[in-house]
Amino acid sequence: MPNHQRLHILIAESNAADITILKRIAGDCDVECDLYFARNGEEALDAFAQRGGFETMPIPDLILVNPYLPKLNGLEVLRKAKEDARIRRIPIIIFTYSERVEDLVRAYDCGAASYLLKPVDPEQFKQLTETVWAYWQVAGGQPHSGAKHKVQAD
């Protein structure tokens, strides 16, 4: 687990309804996390570079990316993240409604740690969030470069 007891999650998501659900779940469930949102691919890159209003967000422990982001698609965000030495080891999960096999294959080819289907029901969203948190506690987090990077959120 990272040095802190709270999980810092950057979510690159343009769907306002999904953002609302994720915020509500974070407040309602036992997951100890702080959520930060980038609403398009360019904002996600700003978060990685700690600019454009993301200067104070802690380095994320986990990144969720919708592959269908505006301005710059999520797979391109994933590729650029994996090229950035500061964040390439952070697990990036593609989080989508798409069940297309070709989307799944492209995500893994670009370096995704996982490909998760978004649940339709809010209770399923909550269960998925708690499952990810439980996995994180067992897996022990991810290796940081040792530097404390800051990035800002919403």
List the helices and strands and how they pair.
Elements: E1 7-12, H1 16-28, E2 33-38, H2 41-49, E3 62-65, H3 74-83, E4 92-96, H4 101-109, E5 114-117, H5 122-139
Parallel strand pairs: 1-2, 1-3, 3-4, 4-5
Helix pairs in contact: 1-5, 2-3
Question: Brief description of this entry?
Answer:
With 154 residues, this protein is an alpha/beta fold. The protein has helices spanning 16-28, 41-49, 74-83, 101-109, 122-139; strands at 7-12, 33-38, 62-65, 92-96, 114-117.
- What's the architecture in CATH terms? 3-Layer(aba) Sandwich
Secondary structure category:
alpha/beta
- How confident overall, as mean pLDDT? 81
Order of helices and strands: EHEHEHEHEH
The total tally of domains equals 1
Describe this structure in words.
The protein is α/β, with parallel strands linked by helices and 154 residues long. It has a single domain, classed as Rossmann fold, CATH 3.40.50.2300. The protein has 5 helices and 5 strands. A 5-stranded parallel beta sheet has the order 2-1-3-4-5, sandwiched between helices. The radius of gyration is 14 Å and the shape is globular.
Notable characteristics:
154 residues, 16% strand, single chain, Rossmann fold, alpha/beta, disordered C terminus, 5-stranded parallel β-sheet, globular
